[in-house]
Specification:
Distance between the termini: 53 Å
Structural class: alpha/beta
Strand order of the largest sheet: 10-9-8-5-4-13-12-11
CATH superfamily: Glycosidases
Shape: globular
CATH architecture: Alpha-Beta Barrel
Number of strands: 15
CATH topology: TIM Barrel
Number of helices: 13
Order of helices and strands: HEEEEHHEEEHEHHHHEHEHEHEHEEEH
Number of domains: 1
Length: about 450
């Protein structure tokens, strides 16, 4: 294993040296967006010389659907993309690579079986997705790792290089310990070498469907370091914070060196995902190699809302949500970078999972979030857009307990969550109508 890691590290360095034709100009990837690449100008996204707003959905599983054979469902993918395009969605946020894990709620199959071992069928699924998005003039954010265990993620990299089984917080319920372990990924040189080798492989890949190098594909809006990277748990030390900030800066710089045309983002939840430290969040995103800011919004997960007592907890949830978004807009304004609210979600009524359960509370929440984002955009604030979590589309829970099993249809809810928890299905007519109306208003602001 050690020898393979050294070889991978060498391959990373060679790829970076060969492909960095010019030093990245952070915050201005793709020039002024005239070549089809989305870039940043005056704290906003631009494409083709005009303002571009992300009106997006999270569909972590989209590359899986693009895979050929029993793994994927290309016919469903085409129908999902047509549906999203029809309601004005112009961007997907997608898991680019997964790591094989034996943990209870991990996705199977996975893209990587170990350092340097990649499933070409699943990578070809990503190729198919990019080509399908290109035909619809849509873009994608590709996250390259995961702080959480449901796709393998950081603790699986550590397990590979340390030769130890990863911690399973779904069994131990020790989430604080899990977060501390996951954050040790940032300072593990062998895990970082394997991770960077995977980054280099993806960034320099040639699409097997349309022959376009990923480096040259404007369909990719941004490479994202990881889904919800955190410096540790809520008792994060100053040393952990320094390591985390350095990792964001160094990894974003590494990607820019290989690929100076695409933007790079962190995937952070925001202040809550930064150990509650707004200064850490701001300093990490001040890196010249991080092109825009991200934040997420999860009122129930963060203890602001109780779906079983919706009327009693609603005011607090809305007040806290507004304050959280305002905090991040203020930081974005100081840093002169756009902010994307790239995850937000709400359960079905009474916390139910079944597709027949109502969506009145979710619809109310979506309406409030859309109004907040649109209002800031209308005032010229540094808003880049939003991605709701998430598009379940044609997917449906296959089991009476709503837990996913390998071979079941994929939805917006990853294997660590009950299927139907946050998914917006194609049958959720009122929610889909809200999304479409917001999309029309957002796109009307693009000039």
């Amino acid at each position: 294993m050690k020898k393979s890691i050294i070889l991978l590290a060498g391959a990373v360095l060679l790829a970076a040296a060969a492909l960095a034709s010019a030093q990245a100009v952070p915050g201005r990837a793709g020039g002024a967006g005239h070549d089809g690449f989305v870039s940043v100008k005056d704290s906003h996204f631009v494409q083709h010389g005009k303002t571009y707003y992300v009106v997006g959905a999270n569909a972590w599983y989209a590359a899986y659907l693009g895979a050929d054979g029993a793994v994927g469902d290309r016919a469903r993918l085409e129908r999902e993309l047509d549906s999203l395009k029809a309601i004005g969605v112009n961007n997907l946020r997608v898991l680019a690579v997964s790591e094989a894990s034996e943990l209870k709620h991990a996705i199977r199959p996975a893209t990587s079986a170990g350092p340097g071992q990649h499933d070409e069928t699943l990578l070809a699924g990503l190729d198919y997705l990019l080509a399908a998005l290109a035909r619809r003039d849509m873009t994608v954010v590709l996250y390259l790792n995961n702080f959480w265990q449901w796709s393998g993620g950081m603790t699986q990299y550590l397990a590979w290089v340390e030769g130890k089984a990863p911690l399973d917080p779904d069994v131990s319920n020790d989430w604080a310990g899990y977060m501390t372990k996951a954050a040790s990924f940032y300072r593990n040189a062998r895990a970082q070498a394997a991770y960077r080798a995977t980054i280099a492989k993806l960034v320099t890949r040639v699409n097997t469907v349309n022959g376009v190098r990923y480096l040259d594909d404007p369909v990719i809006l941004s490479w994202q370091l990881a889904n919800e990277p955190r410096p540790g748990n809520l008792q994060t030390t100053d040393r952990q914070k320094r390591i985390y900030r350095k990792w964001i800066d160094a990894t974003a710089r590494f990607i820019h060196q290989i690929d100076p045309r695409h933007m790079v983002s962190s995937g952070s939840e925001g202040v809550i995902g930064s150990g509650g430290d707004a200064r850490l969040y701001a300093r990490a995103h001040a890196s010249p190699y991080v092109d825009y800011l991200t934040c997420h919004l999860w009122p129930k997960t963060w203890g602001w809302f109780d779906p079983k007592q919706a009327s009693q907890s609603w005011d607090k949830a809305l007040r806290m949500s507004r304050s959280y978004l305002d905090t991040h807009i203020a930081i974005a304004r100081r840093l002169r970078k756009p902010l994307v609210l790239e995850e937000f979600g709400m359960e079905r009524d009474d916390g139910a999972f079944g597709i027949d359960a109502g969506t009145a509370v979710r619809d109310r929440f979506y309406g409030e979030v859309f109004a907040l984002i649109e209002g800031h955009a209308q005032r010229g604030d540094p808003i880049g857009g939003y991605n709701f979590w998430g598009w379940g589309g044609l997917g449906r829970a296959a089991n009476s307990d709503f837990w996913w099993l390998p071979g079941d249809p994929l939805t917006a809810d990853p294997p660590q969550e009950q299927q139907g928890l946050y998914s917006v299905f194609d049958s959720d007519v009122s929610t889909v109508a809200l999304i479409a109306a917001s999309a029309r208003r957002m796109h009307a602001l693009e000039q």
